[in-house]
């Protein structure tokens, strides 16, 4: 099944009680992302232990903006939300 196709419908003649259910392939299941509030501290996946946590500025549309406190107020880095976890 390609990504552009809708989920497969269950044969309702064989399973009448399942008329409103759909089969969703494993790869199409959504990943639950951790709620990361602005101002919290986060780490990257595979972040070295000697690198301090990043401060989260904001997240929007699967992207987050983070900064190191030593970088100053106007320097930030854009990272995918799925790569972050709370420190």
List the helices and strands and how they pair.
Layout: E1 8-9, E2 22-23, E3 41-44, E4 54-60, E5 63-67, E6 77-80, E7 84-86
Antiparallel strand pairs: 1-2, 3-4, 3-7, 4-5, 5-6
Task: Describe the protein in words.
The chain has a domain at 28-86. It contains no helices and seven strands. With 87 residues, the protein is mainly beta. Strand 4 and strand 5 form a beta hairpin. It starts with 7 loop residues before the first strand and ends with a strand. It is 0% helix and 31% strand. A five-stranded antiparallel β-sheet has the order 6-5-4-3-7, with no helix packed on it. It has a two-stranded antiparallel sheet with strand order 1-2. The relative contact order is 0.20.
N-C termini distance: 38 Å
SSE pattern, N- to C-terminal: EEEEEEE
Largest sheet: 5 strands, antiparallel
Low-confidence segments: none
Side-by-side strand order of the widest sheet: 6-5-4-3-7
What portion of the residues fall into strands of 2 or more residues? 25-35%
Q: How many runs of DSSP E, i.e. beta strands? A: 7
Please state the average pLDDT score: 81
**Helix/strand/pairing category:** mainly beta
Q: How much helical structure, as a percent, in the residues?
A: under 10%
Rough outline: elongated
Rg computed from alpha carbons, rounded to a whole number of angstroms: 20 Å
Number of continuous helical runs: 0
